[in-house]
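Lab manual, section 2.4: Encoding a predicted structure.

Procedure: take the sequence of the chain (387 residues), apply the prediction step described in section 2.3, and record the output as structure tokens. A sample record is shown.
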Amino acid sequence: MINLPPRPFKQIEVGDDDPFVANALRPRKHYEPCWCGSARKFKNCHRVRGDLSPVAAGQLLHEQRRIFWQSRGCMHPLAGPSTCNGPVIDAHTIQRKGPLAKIADETGHVMCFDTSSSPGRAEISSRGWRKASTFPGYCQKHDSSLFEPLEKLRFTGTHEQCVLQAFRNICNELYRKRALVESLEFQRDMLDRGRSLDQQISIQMSIFKNLEGQRKSIEENDDVRQQFEDAISTGNYEKFSSRCYFFTGELEVVSSAILQCEFDFCGTQLTDLWDLDLDADLLSHSVMETESGGAIVFVWPSDAKNATRSVQSFDQIPTESKGDIFVQYCFLQSENTYFSKAWWNRLPPTNKDLIRRLANSLYYDGGAFKACDTKLVNWTMASVDTI
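Recorded output:
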């Protein structure tokens, strides 16, 4: 069984001998760099941090949203003043006129788990299907031209379609990670005002470690994004592998993301994400709409051994359990997962409880996924196409 920790966040006990803590506790001159890692002088940073007035939670959330969702420019491989047309728009990572339209209710809303109203806990939320699964990623011209094979043609699982969808995922992930770094830097300045020194150290250490991990992840994503851009610019996609699991049945849960391969579907650990000296392979997944139902789509760099192993482990799952286990994987691993209100209302209480626990767990400790007694989705796998 999959091992979900009792708390959503990983907690690590540290003592005064920890390098970060010891550096924060030692006497420091006013002109020395601050211990928090901000690169500012101590006198301008944490020397009087405890004497400052705390910032109201509402003000913090408002400012963080503004920082997170500001435009950071068009992410097209050939973006520039001479090639872009118009401002950056809200681009969909899950197709609006495909999967999202399929799960929208009569009022045009889809369901998801949202953390914006209650930080640290994901609650079920309703969102307009036109605003769901968006990020300010491309100008109008490049959003239309780049993804034309996806938007203008029915999805049939061509390698080009799969790679283009994965490129959407890598751009979305990079945007969010860069936005998160800027948000964390804002938190470093604001979150511990008016706190005791022990509380300041605890907060700043968490932010420092988070920033280290996010910057490492950005490096890995940037490397893979460059591979995507080279492939798109040349029209040569041979450095990527794709696999489509076509199914018949009702499309009621959709998801799209690119993730680090820490564990495979059998619960085997592939790498230790807590060790920043190790590189993690990236694997893109998406749920696409087809004429007969849909398709689970994986895309990864062909030389990424751990990503290959992860997809191979999905092959080992019994055919009748693939849809159920993939849906669990999506709720555990990706916030970019949406579902229909009708589907949620039909779930038995035990399945709802499982989905809530998966959506609220920010990490897990391995263990194989197990299909539910009452299946989450009625997807019947029809065929597998591999390139």
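Check your result against the sample. The chain is about 40% helix and 20% strand.
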